[in-house]
Structure formats: C-alpha cells, structure tokens
Amino acid sequence: MEKMDPSKHLSRKQNKAFPMLSVLARDITELAFKEKAIFSPKLKRWHSLAAGVAVATLHMCYGNELKKYIKGINELTPDAIEVLMAADKLEKELVQIAVEDSADSEDGGKSIIMEIHPYEAEAIIANLVKSWISIRVDRLAELVESILQQEVCQILLIIILSLYIIYFLKFKQILCFLVFLPSR
C-alpha cells in the first residue's frame, strides 16, 4: 500500500475551502488510471474486463459517499457546485476507462456500462439553481408587496427592482460560466 503524500493533500485551513469529496474524486481518478496501467493488464488473464470491473467498483463506492452528501444539500453553495462538478468529471473519466477496456469484448462492454449508474450531477445542479431562483423570486415578491403596502414612492421600488435584476443577471452569468466549463 502506498503511503499518503502530505504534499498532495490540503492543509486543514485549505480543506475548509475545498470539499473533501472533490479531493476524493481527484484521488479516485488517479487510482483508476494507476489500476488500469499496472493491475488490469495482469488481471486480464482471469477476467477480460478487469479495468471495467475496477472502475465500476470505484464508481459505486464514490457514489455511495456522494449520495450521503447530496442528502445533506438543501441550497446552492460553492462547495456543492464544486463537489458535483468533481463527481461529474470523475464519472466521465471512469466511464471512458470502462469503454476503452471493453472495446474488444463480446458485448462491447455493455454489461459493465450497465453496472455504472449515473450520478446525475448536472441535473442536481440544475435543480439547486431552480430552487435558488425560486427562493429569490419569492423574496422579491414579498419585498415588492411590502413596499407597496407601505406606500413608499415608486422611485424606491424601481431602484430595488433594478438592483435585484442586476444581481440576478450577474449570478446567471456566473452559473452559465460554471455549467459550461470545459472538462479538464
């Protein structure tokens, strides 16, 4: 077993800024590529889809931890986006390894790919964004109603609405940037 390299892992202070499941996803990716290069060629004597079985197992194990994390998410946060994007990237890399490993198999690797149940990270991010927008729209509606009930001048209402629209458009630009980032 390889000893942990402290330089590869983040300090406690940095750890708070970078979620552990993102670090785990990166480490699992490294492990999968090492497994494919070192162990799978030897294990192919006993199982023709050795790398595929290994990455399916890694995918399932990470998925179990990801499910626990997702159950605790109730709002859109930078940490949640980071973890879900790391999970999506990991999933794509693991599936790619499985596909490459099974290209010469009888069923083309369909049996292994069927074992890899998607994390659906992009759908979860989309649902969190919808929830965030819904909450902000509700708050805006409450604010508008409150202002109208207090009979505050219309200029104040226009200023507040303008600020909310600017804030919303800025956030939308950031989300579009995050969602359409190219895979690394």
Description:
The chain has 184 residues and is mostly helical. It contains eight helices and no strands. It folds into two domains: 1-119, no CATH class; 120-184, no CATH class. Helix 2 runs parallel beside helix 5 (78-101). The longest helix has 29 residues, at 121-149.
H/E series: HHHHHHHH
- Unreliable runs: 1-17
Rg (C-alpha, Å):
23 Å
Largest sheet: none
What is the global morphology? rod-shaped
Summarize model confidence as the mean pLDDT.
80
Helix coverage percent of residues? Answer: over 70%
Approximate strand percentage = under 5%
Number of helices: 8
How far apart lie the N and C ends?
Answer: 28 Å
Q: Output the structural class.
A: mainly alpha
Q: How many independent structural domains?
A: 2
Strand element count: 0
**From the structure provided, what is the oligomeric state, counting identical versus distinct chains?**
single chain
Which helices and strands appear, and what pairs or packs with what?
Blueprint lengths: L11 H6 L2 H19 L1 H4 L6 H23 L5 H24 L8 H6 L5 H29 L4 H26 L5
Helix pairs in contact: 2-4, 2-5, 4-5, 5-7, 7-8
How would you summarize this macromolecular structure in one to three sentences?
By secondary structure, the protein is mostly helical. The chain is built from eight helices and no strands. It has helices at 12-17, 20-38, 40-43, 50-72, 78-101, 110-115, 121-149, 154-179.
